[in-house]
Write a structure and sequence with these properties.
Structural class: mainly alpha
Radius of gyration: 8 Å
Shape: globular
Helix content: 55-70%
Strand content: under 5%
Mean pLDDT: 60
Distance between the termini: 17 Å
Low-confidence stretches: none
Number of helices: 2
Largest sheet: none
Number of domains: 1
Length: 26
């Protein structure tokens, strides 16, 4: 659920954004 929402809503491109969009993942 979180992955689909983050992928569809945020769609991060850089590593920094990925950390900002889903800090819980790390």
């Amino acid at each position: 659920m979180l992955r689909l929402k983050n992928s569809k809503q945020f769609r991060p491109r850089k590593q920094s954004e990925v950390t900002k969009t889903k800090p819980a993942a790390l």
